[in-house]
Write a structure and sequence with these properties.
This protein is an alpha/beta fold and 147 residues long. Helices cover 23% and strands 35% of the residues. It contains 3 helices and 8 strands; from the N terminus they run E-H-E-E-E-H-E-H-E-E-E. It has helices spanning 15-25, 68-80, 93-102; strands spanning 7-11, 29-35, 42-47, 55-59, 84-89, 106-114, 117-123, 129-135. The chain starts with 6 loop residues before the first strand and ends in a 12-residue tail after the last strand.
Length: 147
C-alpha cells in the first residue's frame, strides 16, 4: 500500500544553479549532492526543513533516464517556461511573496485570492513555474478563479 510521496523530480537546466536557487532563495535544505558510482549520474535533492519525508531531485534531462532526443526536447520546454513543477505551501502568501521578491525570485502573478487559498506564481532559474499557496481550510466558492 502506498503511504505517501517521497521523491519528486524537478527538471532543471543546471544543477549548481538550481541548487543555489532552491536553497538560497527558497530556503529549502540540501539533502544530497553526490555522484552515483564512478563517473555516474549526479544526485542532488532538496526539501523543506519541516517536511523530511519529501525530497525534490534536481535533474538535468539526459542519460540514463532520457535518450538524447528526448532530453533536448525537454530542455527546450523547460527553457520556454511552459512546465509547471508543483505548488509550495506557505502560512502567509503576501509575506512570502515580499521575502522571495527581495531575494530576486521572479513572480508571474502577485498574490491573489482563489477559491482554494491565496496564490502567487513564480519561476525558478530554469524557467519552471510554481504556485505559492496559502491554503484555506475550506473552499471559498465566492472567490473568482480569474482575478
Amino acid at each position: 500500500m502506498i503511504t505517501g510521496l517521497g521523491l519528486a523530480t524537478v527538471w532543471v537546466l543546471d544543477q549548481d544553479s538550481a541548487k543555489e536557487f532552491f536553497t538560497e532563495k527558497l530556503g529549502l535544505e540540501l539533502r544530497y549532492d553526490m555522484t552515483l558510482g564512478e563517473g555516474g549520474m549526479r544526485w542532488v535533492t532538496v526539501g523543506a526543513k519541516n517536511q523530511p519525508e519529501l525530497q525534490l531531485t534536481l535533474m538535468v534531462p539526459g542519460p540514463p533516464s532520457l535518450d538524447p532526443e528526448s532530453a533536448d526536447q525537454l530542455k527546450a520546454l523547460i527553457a520556454k517556461g511552459v512546465l509547471g513543477a508543483g505548488a509550495f505551501n506557505t502560512d502567509d502568501c503576501h509575506a512570502a511573496h515580499r521575502e522571495l521578491t527581495a531575494k530576486g525570485v521572479t513572480f508571474l502573478q502577485e498574490p491573489q485570492k482563489r477559491p482554494y487559498g491565496i496564490e502567487a506564481i513564480f519561476r525558478d532559474d530554469s524557467g519552471n513555474w510554481y504556485s505559492l499557496t496559502q491554503r484555506f481550510d475550506e473552499l471559498d466558492e465566492s472567490a473568482d478563479w480569474n482575478d
